[in-house]
Amino acid sequence: MENGAVYRPTTEVHPGTARDTRSSLAACCFLGRLKWPRRTLKILQVLLSLLAFVCEEVVSQCTLCGGLYFFEFVSCSAFLLSLLMLVVYFTPVYDRVDAVKVKLSDFYITVAIACLFLMASIIFVSTHDKTSAEVAAIVFGFLASFMFLGDFFIMLYEKRQESQLTKPETAVGTAALTEPLNA
Q1: d(CA 91, CA 24)
Q2: Which residue has the higher pLDDT, 123 or 36?
Q3: What are the extents of the domains in the chain?
Q4: Whole-Å CA distances, 25 to 9, 22, 81
Q5: Which of 77, 78, 138, 151 is most deeply buried (CB count within 10 A of its CB)?
């Protein structure tokens, strides 16, 4: 056996691996999976929940700390979960998992975070000490809640539109179904 036949596939450059003109980071990101309103909402969710978390972390003392701690947990969880969904949508991870499961997970995560963030913001309003950092955290918390709620309603609308497009026609009579085929 000649050595060229053994070593050729591993030593020659594969023609498909030539570098593209795009950078490697841009090549792995695909923004087209989400339409611009949802893409904007997803980015705003990440930014506003991060800002709410950072502003809450700046608070140095509190008299009723239960609302602050709950807000801290919810804002941090919202930031991490919304960042995770953003990464899944914008990277090749989306191609490796079932798209239906991603959309369903995004739907349930969004509605849960929207409800919890709104509740945490309301509780934090009733227990805060009126410092500027707490007020800023509350404002960002409510804004993030509204972004999550807006995303939820857009997903609900899209889901309803899809179900109307795939709804089977009900015009087929039941008498036609009960008649024999060769009559």
Answers
A1: 12
A2: 123
A3: 33-161
A4: 28, 8, 22
A5: 78
